[in-house]
Amino acid sequence: MLPVAPRAGRLLVLAAVFISAACGLVYELELVALASYLTGDSVTQASVVLSVMVFAMGIGSLLAKHLRCRAAAAFGAVEAALALVGGCSAMALYAGFVWGAGTTGTRVLLVAFCLAIGVLIGAEVPLLMTLIQRIRRQDAGGAVADLFAADYVGALAGGLAFPFLLLPLLGQLTGALLTGAVNAVAGGTLVLWLFRHDLSARARRRLLAANLAVLVLLATLAAGVGDFERAARHTMYGADVRVARQTDVQEVVVTGRAHPSDGGHGGSDLDLYLDGHLRPGGRDGHRYHEALVHPAMRGPHARVLILGGADGLAAREVLRHSGVDRVDVVAADRELTDLARTDPALSALNAHAYDDPRLHLAHDDAFQWLREPRTGAASRPYDVVIADLPEPRLTEAARFYSQEFFGLVARTLAPEGRLAVHAGPATRTRAFWTVEAGVRAAGLRSVPYRVRAKGRREETGAGRERTPRDWAFLLAARTPPRLGLDARPARRSLTPAMLRDGARAMAATRVPGLPPSTLVHPRYAGAAADGG
């Protein structure tokens, strides 16, 4: 006996299918996004999450065959468990990464959550199929078509809600907890109200208690998300976090402080982390930016284009040269450039580069900006192009090191123009020489070199991993470029002898015969894993 007419009851079951599918896809996307942020390589993380989860869904469907005799109670229990596991998955994965699991342990946790969530999602449709047939018998084909239609539309809603609503408005942790709460309410309401006569009084009490317990736990965790994130940042970045902000592009964390009188020459202990990766910036970042910028500035440099470099540190080095008339900076993250302009410590570190009238800022993706036709001053060729972009080991950045990208850059260069590229750590030799192959394939000649930091080692609090900072670069032009420095600016730690030594050391690591990376065949996923 249903409390509503059969037609209304059937619509309620389909609504439950819709909500369950939306919540399930949000859990999947949350795991993909968080795993990509924590361990990198979004293609690998997406492949692991989706393949393991689909496999587990098949297991869940098989297991649900044995629960159809108690479909209402089983569905209520499955939804409560799914709300608990899925809602807490992001917070548990993040906690495991920060407090001891490291990269390997995080991947194990990821697979475990994918298996658990997949089994529970897989059990939903067979149980709902049984429930909808109890309301009104219909042919199996029609019932399956209705259920899968609601399921697919719900997946569409969840897939759109995650990037456009949950992630920007609530963040990954709160978004997952809220999704779990919606999941629990929808499943509990369907069973405890629409199918309450299928349950014994004892089963109703147990199911109600379980759903209330899940909701209370999710609400408690949601209330503590702020404290949890602060504790996690304290563990990962230390106690001196100045700024922690999730922009539309990435997570930005600034730690330490800069000394205004230093001007970026080593006295600063300011560090900038983008999506958990330390950017060269404070204590010895001046050497990185000197090595990236100054060799390319030897020669005509009236017009300079900086791709990336939202922190303003590459622009700081460019503007130290006399004869610079115009600097165009193309950076996608508007909030980071605003921070680099307004934060006292960060603006001191970049020597207030964004206040220089010669600097012109475009908030755009570097690849897209190069593709679009331009007018005015930005349409003229550049004497120098500086590519200060994320390392190619990050899958989403691989297109910035493709043959097509370097071809677009070559199109913007003046006849005697130079391109400077940071191509990751010198220890990842295969990745570096893949970048060099892409530069050559675009019609440019290049000189490789590397520069070591002054004993500085990158430390990541979560993984306790320490990695030598040994940066690798390419200087490229249409004719073989000459590696060197001009007489100015005088105040720098980089010397011609360092460049000569770095060029010899990098040339000795050459890996011959590597094909270039392209948009349709990115090659850095395997190349980035080599250790030299």
TrEMBL record:
Pathway: Amine and polyamine biosynthesis; spermidine biosynthesis; spermidine from putrescine: step 1/1. PROSITE patterns: PABS_2, PROKAR_LIPOPROTEIN. GO terms for molecular function: spermidine synthase activity. The chain crosses the membrane at residues 12-37, 43-64, 71-97, 109-132, 144-167, 173-195, 207-226. It catalyses: S-adenosyl 3-(methylsulfanyl)propylamine + putrescine = S-methyl-5'-thioadenosine + spermidine + H(+). Keywords: Cell membrane, Membrane, Polyamine biosynthesis, Spermidine biosynthesis, Transferase, Transmembrane, Transmembrane helix. It is found in: Cell membrane. Its EC number is 2.5.1.16. The active site is at D388. It is an enzyme of class 2 (transferase). InterPro entries: MFS_trans_sf, PABS, SAM-dependent_MTases_sf, Spermi_synthase. It comes from the Bacteria. Pfam families: Spermine_synth. S-methyl-5'-thioadenosine binds at Q250, D365, A366. Residues 224-478 form the PABS domain. Spermidine binds at H289, D311. Its main location: membrane. Catalyzes the irreversible transfer of a propylamine group from the amino donor S-adenosylmethioninamine (decarboxy-AdoMet) to putrescine (1,4-diaminobutane) to yield spermidine. Belongs to the spermidine/spermine synthase family. HAMAP family: Spermidine_synth. This is Polyamine aminopropyltransferase. It comes from Streptomyces solicavernae. The lineage of its organism: Bacteria, Bacillati, Actinomycetota, Actinomycetes, Kitasatosporales. The gene is speE.
